Amino acid sequence: MVLATSARNAGALLASAGLGDVFDHVIDGQTALDRDVAGKPAPALPLEAVRRLEIPPARAMVIEESVTGVEACRRGGFGLVVGIDRDGRRDRLEAAGADVVVEDVSQLDIGLVITHPWLLVYEGFDPAHEGHREALTTVGNGYLATRGAAPEHRAGAVHYPGSYLAGVYNSLHSVVLDQESDDEHMVNIPDWLPLDLRIGDGGWWSAGGLSLRSERRTLDLKRAVLSREALLEDDAGRQLRLLQRRLVSMARPNLAALETVITPVGWSGGISIRSGCDTDVTNSNVPEDASLSSRHLGSVTAAASVDGPGIACLTVEARTVTSGIGIALALRTAVSGADGPAGSGIPEQLGGLHTHRFELSVNAGEPLTVLKTVAVASSRDHAIASPLTAARAALARAPGGFAALLAEHEAAWEILLEPFIIELDASSQAQLILNLHVFHLLQTLTTHTAELDAGVPARGLHGEGYRGHIFWDELFVLPVLNSRLPSLARELVDYRWRRLGAARDAARAAGLKGALFPWQSGSDGTEQTPKLLFNRRSGHWMPDYSRLQRHVGLAVAYNAWQYFEATQDRGWLTEHGAEIIVDVARLFASMAEFDPADDRFHLRGVMGPDEYHTGNPGDPGGGLNDNAYTNVMAAWVFDQAVWIMHSVRGFDMQELRARLLVTAAEIEAWEHLSRRMFVPFHGDGIISQFDGYAALRELDWEHYRRSYGLIERLDLILEAEGDSTNHYRLAKQADVLMLLYVLGEDQLIRFLARMGYAVTSAQMAATVDFYLARTAHGSTLSRVAHASVLAQRDPERAWAVFREALDADLDDTQGGTTSSGIHLGAMAGTIDVVQRSFAGLRITRDALDFAPRLPVELSRLDFQVRYRDQLLAVQLERDRLTVSAAPGDAAPVLVRVGTQRVLLKAGQEHEFLRKDR
Amino acid sequence: MVLATSARNAGALLASAGLGDVFDHVIDGQTALDRDVAGKPAPALPLEAVRRLEIPPARAMVIEESVTGVEACRRGGFGLVVGIDRDGRRDRLEAAGADVVVEDVSQLDIGLVITHPWLLVYEGFDPAHEGHREALTTVGNGYLATRGAAPEHRAGAVHYPGSYLAGVYNSLHSVVLDQESDDEHMVNIPDWLPLDLRIGDGGWWSAGGLSLRSERRTLDLKRAVLSREALLEDDAGRQLRLLQRRLVSMARPNLAALETVITPVGWSGGISIRSGCDTDVTNSNVPEDASLSSRHLGSVTAAASVDGPGIACLTVEARTVTSGIGIALALRTAVSGADGPAGSGIPEQLGGLHTHRFELSVNAGEPLTVLKTVAVASSRDHAIASPLTAARAALARAPGGFAALLAEHEAAWEILLEPFIIELDASSQAQLILNLHVFHLLQTLTTHTAELDAGVPARGLHGEGYRGHIFWDELFVLPVLNSRLPSLARELVDYRWRRLGAARDAARAAGLKGALFPWQSGSDGTEQTPKLLFNRRSGHWMPDYSRLQRHVGLAVAYNAWQYFEATQDRGWLTEHGAEIIVDVARLFASMAEFDPADDRFHLRGVMGPDEYHTGNPGDPGGGLNDNAYTNVMAAWVFDQAVWIMHSVRGFDMQELRARLLVTAAEIEAWEHLSRRMFVPFHGDGIISQFDGYAALRELDWEHYRRSYGLIERLDLILEAEGDSTNHYRLAKQADVLMLLYVLGEDQLIRFLARMGYAVTSAQMAATVDFYLARTAHGSTLSRVAHASVLAQRDPERAWAVFREALDADLDDTQGGTTSSGIHLGAMAGTIDVVQRSFAGLRITRDALDFAPRLPVELSRLDFQVRYRDQLLAVQLERDRLTVSAAPGDAAPVLVRVGTQRVLLKAGQEHEFLRKDR
């Protein structure tokens, strides 16, 4: 690791702090500027200096104090860009791309930042970014997740201590703009965190009686523990050292714990502790939803008890008001000092906040430990007599003491995490973010989720954005799970299978056949897309037409097929998977209109992934004709349905055909459709996003960039201007290019040829360039797709886009949306890009294929893949790809790299050399 | 089919009725008596006559009028024994073993009885047997089941219209004998059947205003439809012909329907129809539970609406009072006559009975149709927004008209049923009962059950016996499912897996390790065995010690292993199955006490399957030492656990070992235990049921048979006498012999040898004889095990015992218990005996083994087996066994008959000839 800086004194200060063993080189820019590269503009200096050392910028950290300097360094591909905010420009520095912004170099904990790709550290408290940090420090176990909120604060403008249970929704009635609506939300459950302090008779911490002198929050990704070190002080200058650790147990899905160790610094006396549960919670995490009803819990009851010295218990029961889901919490607070259990909890109640107050005396330097353990259960759990008995049993079953809870939690987490670890030789920062993405994927979706009939929530269990709904994100998430935890992937597809009834109803209601999956799905699989979208820029409510995205069902069918390919789970295919594929094929077959004029089938009135086009100009919400992505993927699903019906043979397939009444004529129709769907083109063989796209106007991108800076949400900008995105050649996100992401260039070209469209590689390149230039990246998924597409033809640019994709949530690049939840599809997508695009991994009908395209910034990549019953360790270097199968008795698998094919047995290793490719 | 009778005129009457084409021979006993076998006692005559024809008695039907005649014919093995009750001795004739009792030969619908092995027919109404018939005509779909009760009657002394949802339990507090208890019951949900009639202003049918002139109820097993033809008459002699059909939809788990067609016979005028739902239901099906609390539903609300001409709707919501499960019903009544929809429903309420009354005028000969369609949902369902929205959606989704409901129901039922059909060339009666057993197995457990986290309820969903609890019956049920519907078998084992937490708690609470599964399991897997058992004979409450049956966990582990053997589902083994096996092994390892004196391990203080021994004499409830069944099966589980740990290799097994912290030392200890468990013997190598059994007194069986007639419940008899079953060499049911049932003789002898016990085949024969002579058959499972054991050494006797096992529920041989539910283990057990014992099918580690032992009464047996991914049609004849694999692309499987082994590919057939064996 190299440090390069042009910031005043930064290099010298750090060097003098004895960091010689952290950095291989320290380039102090001010000095360098004078001596070596005088005349160059300062912002370019560190890059220049690093280049001279012939070290990849990704392996260097830079410290900059100007916005332009940060921007330049970000563009230069530095591993870590630190901004120094000497004049309150934190926001601008962050917007410019700084990975970390500090007010002084001394605040930088270089050791943590640089050397630990498994630690996400936040120094100090920053009210403007607290929501963002809460979301990114959420800990969960796929059943329950709790935002990384400070336990002393209740929900308000700055803090939002939300906790969520996977799959727990409730619908409330609201009136907005005189429109009545019933809106289903993932429910914020009672807050189990509350823990407040005061010294003597002073004010409570929550009320300002104590203030933070320093604070560091560390999310340890390798242990899945969030810790917080703080120094508190009251008005009289008395200090308390505070250490908090929390976990949501990966070993026991119903369990979470918060340990607080308090040590008086240099004084002895009385302190009070208040520990309890806030039942007075609403869904208030999303500003745009402020006008909707928000109180999802009814019949809330709480019962407090004192269960011995230093131990107080609380049980809370509530029921969601319309879905009727019972939720119970059993909470135990145990206080102990040097001499064992301490104090006696006095029950108190303040509105919905039920607490026990402990009055204690403490001695200087002697730590006092408060352990809160909570068990949460809901009526959706299996194997319970009631939520309350289940919560009580889970609490009773929990081992005593944080250390024991932590030990089993860590052991379970290690087992879950291990196969997901991807090691890059990129900067620590890139590695950290990739690890963070793996982490949050596995806080949201785990083996525990597999028991819950829950889907893939677009915003994790990390906040209330998108109301906790399920979109098409599984298209980006399941490839990662299929190849590591296929039993979970199966259950996530089964979330869709269980909602085939609602999807069939929706198709019937639309006069169609088969199954019409909703764009936004919640509890029962009915359409949950809101009808209106609030534009904070204009103050208008805009119609939300995104439900016209019929392509979500294509993603579901694709995922069902991919799970089968990865596992050869034939029982599931015939019992569940093929039902999905058949019913999606039926939907699109019934939507397809034949035009004798071109002897082609057309899909009319739909939207593609690009939500900025809802209809032709002048017809917003009218949908578009022949969205290329939808048409080609529909053809792909038709082809897949035919393949299953013809190639999977046996009594079980006969039974399936009998069950679904699949006829030979129907299969023939799919076969025909798979070859005769229409695909629009314009120019010299450029695939048109939809029929009519070519006739749209070009946008003056430069004008909008100049006028607005960030122009990702062009929909809101243009609406506020009285204009519409429907008029322009632009896209919110990858749309045509999604075809390249999903199918890969080779397969796409072959598939188009089969459909009767000869597209050359050069034409495909022109298509890529055309859309790359016209995409606003208004969705975090967009850069994922683009990075993947670029990996196939422009590896260097791919890395830059990949880095931007990595930064999406960490830097909250979508303009503050991360505070209401991570973007799970984008997080998983970055993991997927590494394996799908950099390693070129594809699961095909007979083999595991690799087509490595390592970006120049990477020289090595290590990851594991489960394929059928084998666990394969993959090590990719510039000149070789090594695949090692774990020992065992599983059947051999075929691995293919280009023309090389190897049948790999358990315990075997094979090295594919580049020269052979 | 032959008819033989010594009853006066019976033969002549039947023959004169033109039944020449039904019977190959008609032997009129009275005639025969005079001419052929004069001097022989009459009861033996038909048997004698049939023997002369050299036709197996199983292929003959006999009509007898004396109790001794019926008894003799039953012993003689006739296919169908008809009793003629000329003097009110129906009960005695039935007790003596009559298959059908009629008052007059003309009541016999020979066509139905003899020629339709798929029709269960009840002629006329018999209040004494109504509960029994309700249970046996229950229709269900594995999610919902409804007893075959008459819709016009509410629950009372005679009628009990119960409906149950799989896995829906509730616990209530009761005080019995000053003992407080919380008892969990499967909940009787609101009754959706009520449908009442009256003519003009006359009294309602339910109140006696109409009376039944004739009635026939037919359960069509092939269509899963219960129909009822009746002729009603009012005091004025006006008649109504009534045809009712009902189904619980196999196509849509939440749906059921009851169609009623009413036709006035020779008159026109007004009629009233009342249709609705009875919400005022309790759990009152079991007389012994009468002193327990019984109201499980709270917050019941109902809402009526009229939805157009002739259509009335009702929604009902309720919540179980302690488990908090929401239950909703949406019910639609549609009335139509010749001119379309008829009448308008007027909402009425009588207590908890919510109905719509339709006032209609009818014309002679013109049918009026009333279709009730109900959708039921509960908060335990997946993919719902709430029970009420789910019930409404399911009702809205239902096709209109009974014909359409029936068509999709029949199609789904055919697909489910088909692989379970077993064809015997035994009497139609035997075939009918076997079909009935298949039927009720598949009303209780279906693909829909697989979604419910429900176990195998001992009494089906057919009544409230055993409170709907889960015992060890899956030991008898899963072999049938494993080999036909393995995905369901897996979910039923997962019911246990999900309750490992409770089982681990129970072990911990008992000072043991591993998992202690409860003897009776309900919602959450805690022990639900009642502490008291009411003895109606003595009027005493007796302590119930059956929870000492630790062996239930051995059955769970055995089933987990068998599922893996049948499917090779390795993912499930490492994620779920092995967890069960390891934790059961751990339990028994921690229970085992080492005695250096004999260098053996002992299990103390347990009960075996025989519930009549709860402790040594003088120590009831103290448990027994070294129950042979428990000790040997524990050794088997130890061996299996070792095998898994050593032989299943791979990363996933490593992960499992890490997750469960399995150490090499632990595996070594299991290996040692598997060889050194103690097995008690007495006499010349007879396995003792437990240590100390040999010292017990012999029972004077003849005395008790003389004194009490039926002596199956010796426990109640002896308790009433102030004595105890603990004092005697007797058994409620197979205990030692269960080892032979589960493991088979060869494997058992080999396994004992491995344990250091040399047991010869002759000694095993002596063991069998010893226990056969001392078993009271107080459990329906007993005859199943005995038939299986006898098949291996005494095929002729096996068939007789098998026939007795078949008759258990149809004839209600357990003294009236069938009215509170079928005996699912015994029903499935008879199916299992056919494949396990008659065909000798066993699933071993590498092959599907057959060791046919066809009883002399059978010359042919046809069934299907799913093994791994193949579907095999098995045809067994005296001299050959033919196995045909269905076409397809599944991998070949190894089939073994004796020393012959064939690797059978999909689409292939192989004939194993007897001479080669």
Task: Provide a quick synopsis of the model.
Two copies of one chain form a homodimer. In chain A, 32% of the residues lie in helices and 26% in strands.
Fold and architecture overview:
- The structure is a homodimer of 917-residue chains.
- By secondary structure, chain A is an alpha+beta fold.
- Chain A has 26 helices and 38 strands.
- In chain A, strands 6, 12, 13, 14, 15, 17, 18, 19, 20 and 23 form a 10-stranded antiparallel sheet that branches. In chain A, strands 2-1-3-4-5 form a 5-stranded parallel sheet, sandwiched between helices.
- The radius of gyration of chain A is 28 Å and the shape is globular.
- The two termini of chain A are 33 Å apart.
- The interface between A and B is large, with 65 and 66 residues.
